[in-house]
């Protein structure tokens, strides 16, 4: 097949149809008419000189269709990211949008101005805290430029990862109760990397425990631990002042901290900054 230039709108229409599994829904999402979307998909088939969908199964892709979808999805994302970045760079008050887990945000925030300079010298930076799923989604939807996520090792946008050692922390002077007494834990909600690491360690060691406080907000968990409510898993080197590591509980596995970047340039800048910011961890 001779070299062919494929318009991005044609690719976008095809990707939308596959993701929506229907022409009508895809048209609604794109703000176009259903006949227009159908014609654009037909145009793509003409340009690649091959059918994109199997005739015997509704919306099942052919081998060529699978290639067009996988590459097309990336092309649409890169195209939109390029336009977004151009618009942001032209704005005099552009800010670098950074996502951080609440568990390490307090310690890393003083270092973010250096990241801003390394990443192109935006006018300032905007910080969003959240869990791994939320930060990963924000990167994919171009709502964040750079993020560090806990427990995400193989995300599509992950460009580097570190192994962060975990420990049990409580108020100074307190000790974990010896077995068979019930340990009182302060944890993030079920499904989070910290929760699963802590609960898995306790179950594996057959240690009885109860969750006295469950909250996604790291600041709330720190307040609960500081008031003496219980013991919490935290990243070594990032525990707030006034809390210290306690023994007597099962060892915790290291937690993966991954760097996510919206573009290759931002990812490269983030890697340089994070390599120093996360120097306490072993590079993954």
TrEMBL record:
A Pfam family: LysR_substrate
PROSITE patterns membership: HTH_LYSR (PS50931)
HTH lysR-type domain ranges (all copies): 6-62
InterPro entries per the UniProt record, alphabetical: LTTR (IPR050176), LysR_HTH_N (IPR000847), LysR_subst-bd (IPR005119), WH-like_DNA-bd_sf (IPR036388), WH_DNA-bd_sf (IPR036390)
Superkingdom classification of source: Bacteria
An example molecular function term from Gene Ontology annotations: DNA-binding transcription factor activity
Gene3D superfamilies in alphabetical order: Periplasmic binding protein-like II (3.40.190.10), Winged helix-like DNA-binding domain superfamily/Winged helix DNA-binding domain (1.10.10.10)
Keywords assigned by UniProt, alphabetized: DNA-binding, Transcription, Transcription regulation
Family, per entry: Belongs to the LysR transcriptional regulatory family.
The protein's name: DNA-binding transcriptional LysR family regulator
Classification of source organism: Bacteria, Pseudomonadati, Pseudomonadota, Alphaproteobacteria, Hyphomicrobiales
């Amino acid at each position: 097949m001779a070299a062919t230039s494929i318009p991005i709108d044609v690719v976008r229409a095809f990707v939308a149809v596959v993701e929506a599994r229907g022409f009508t829904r895809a048209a609604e999402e794109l703000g176009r008419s259903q006949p227009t979307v159908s014609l654009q998909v037909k145009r793509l088939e003409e340009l690649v000189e091959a059918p994109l969908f199997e005739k015997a199964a509704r919306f099942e892709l052919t081998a060529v269709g699978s290639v067009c979808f996988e590459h097309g999805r990336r092309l649409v994302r890169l195209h939109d990211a390029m336009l977004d970045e151009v618009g942001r760079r032209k704005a005099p008050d552009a800010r670098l949008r950074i996502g951080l887990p609440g568990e390490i945000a307090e310690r890393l925030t003083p270092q973010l101005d250096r990241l801003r300079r390394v990443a192109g010298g935006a006018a300032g930076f905007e910080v969003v805290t959240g869990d791994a799923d939320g930060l990963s989604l924000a990167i994919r939807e171009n709502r964040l430029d750079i993020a560090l996520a806990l427990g995400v090792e193989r995300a599509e946008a992950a460009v580097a990862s570190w192994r962060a050692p975990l420990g049990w922390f409580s108020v100074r002077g307190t000790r974990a109760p010896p077995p068979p007494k019930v340990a009182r834990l302060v944890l993030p909600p079920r499904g989070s990397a910290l929760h699963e690491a802590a609960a898995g360690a306790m179950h594996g060691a057959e240690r009885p425990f109860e969750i006295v406080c469950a909250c996604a907000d790291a600041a709330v968990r720190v307040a609960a631990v500081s008031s003496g409510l219980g013991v919490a898993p935290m990243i070594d080197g990032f525990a707030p002042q006034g809390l210290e590591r306690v023994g007597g509980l099962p060892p915790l596995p290291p937690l993966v901290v991954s760097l996510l970047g919206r573009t290759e340039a931002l990812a490269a800048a983030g890697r340089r900054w994070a390599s120093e910011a996360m120097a306490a961890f072993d590079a993954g």
